[in-house]
């Protein structure tokens, strides 16, 4: 299938759209984890007896790790498959979120840096994949759709985790968050065939 055929809605178009839908699901779950972590983690730190200054410092380290993660995963995206990067970053995120409950205060600083890499790094691989799946003349609209689904996850899901924390406790909310993050891994496997198809018709 030629690139022109794909751009005009040829036989590769259905695979591209299916891939975009699956990518949006992964993006929703990724944004949900990122947004919920920023809401829930300060309460985890407060439960450890940390003061406002210490919590602010931990969040700065988390954001710094996130900035590093954006760059590093973007660089790795030129060398490794998207799904491998999703598994690496989100698997790391799920483990570290759960470990944050038992991590002593002094060890929380390096954990926040590495967690930030996992939390924020995935999005670099996901955003790049939109361009791989969608023809150039249609990308503006589909990037808008992708960002919108991501923002829904960022806004809506932290409210759900807040309800879980109120009903079952903070630890339960963090554990559920870790399990939900792990859900990204099997879901992302479905992207492989769509990305391979998009590469063949490009």
Task: Give the arrangement of secondary structure elements.
Elements (H helix, E strand, L loop, with lengths): L2 H5 L5 H35 L4 H25 L5 H18 L8 H26 L5 H30 L1 H20 L1 H11 L1
Summarize the structure in words.
This protein has helices at 3-7, 13-47, 52-76, 82-99, 108-133, 139-168, 170-189, 191-201. The protein is mostly helical and 202 residues long.
What is the compact description of this entry?
By secondary structure, the chain is mostly helical.
Poorly predicted sequence stretches spanning 5 or more consecutive residues: 1-11
Tally the helices. 8
Give the biggest sheet: none
**Approximate shape:** elongated
Instruction: Work out the strand percent.
Output: under 5%
Structural class by helix and strand composition: mainly alpha
The sequence of SSEs as H and E is: HHHHHHHH
Q: Terminal Cα separation, in Å?
A: 8 Å
Question: What's the gyration radius in Å?
Answer: 18 Å
Q: Whole-number average pLDDT?
A: 87
Helix content: over 70%
- E-strand count: 0
Characteristics of this structure?
202 residues, 8 helices, elongated, 84% helix, mainly alpha
